[in-house]
Specification:
It is built from eleven helices and no strands. It is mainly alpha-helical. It has one domain. The mean pLDDT is 81.
Length: 254
């Protein structure tokens, strides 16, 4: 006998409409990043090959450290700085990207952890906007999980949604465990960002464009992530079931 849970088909028009909106938002999220990728030239894989070997070797460790520091710093900042609108977060990271790109690869490396912190703080604000408390450990972990998505310069068919919403025991060890799982994926994404910012001639303009697309992407993905969680609560439906329904709609839109 199978232990698989069989859910009835969805018939609620409001739920179906919201799922369609979330799928459309998910599909549109990568648009700007793919445009920037075409402008810089090549593809995501060739971008990573442009990075010097010492940088590629350190990228995952640097990303993991950035996530760990951002996890603490973003939470602390909530007691000091109120949530900002999307356009202000985007303007801030765009300016930082320009400064980082102006300094070439060393400047981009120095800017990277600051950008990760700002992005995480923006994601926490979106969680609050959807009715979740970013001070709760579970929601702080959910914010980290947003970074498990494919990234703005890759086609994402929704297969990451299962991992992004994976449940973990809420202990100090689980925070480290989650960061360890997310870091390799995010390192690949940030490697593309660094390589593009370090591209000859483009400099500050590339850095600004890349950070604009990254911030827009992760804010949109956060809205999909927390929008789905809120829908599950308001419609009193299983979140895993809705996630499967959303993944199916994303795949159909590809």
């Amino acid at each position: 006998m199978s232990d698989q849970v069989i859910f009835p088909p969805l018939h609620d028009p409001a739920v179906l409409t919201e799922l369609g909106s979330l799928a459309a938002r998910h599909k549109a999220a990568s648009g700007l990043g793919m445009q920037v990728l075409g402008w810089v030239g090549g593809n995501a894989e060739t971008l990573l090959e442009r990075l010097p070997a010492p940088v590629k070797d350190r990228l995952e460790a640097v990303t993991r450290t950035a996530l760990e520091n951002a996890f603490s710093a973003a939470a602390r900042s909530r007691g000091v700085v109120s949530d900002r609108p999307d356009w202000l977060n985007t303007a801030l990271t765009t300016a930082m990207g320009a400064a980082g790109g102006l300094g070439g690869l060393p400047g981009a490396m120095a800017e990277l952890p600051v950008t990760v912190t700002v992005l995480l703080r923006a994601i926490q604000g979106i969680a609050a906007e959807h009715g979740f408390d970013p001070a709760e450990e579970e929601i702080r972990l959910e914010c980290i999980r947003v970074f498990a998505s494919a990234g703005p310069m890759a086609a994402d068919d929704g297969t990451d949604l299962a991992f992004v919403s994976a449940r973990m025991t809420l202990t100090g060890q689980s925070v480290q465990g989650l960061i360890a799982k997310v870091a390799p994926r995010l390192a690949g994404v940030l490697g593309q960002k660094l390589a593009a910012q370090a591209a000859p001639v483009l400099g500050a303009v590339a850095g600004a464009a890349i950070n604009y697309s990254f911030t827009s992407y992760y804010q949109e993905i956060a809205r999909v992530h927390f929008g789905l969680k809120r829908l599950a609560q308001t419609a009193q439906l299983d979140e895993g079931f809705l996630r499967e329904e959303l993944r199916a709609r994303i795949a159909r839109k590809k």
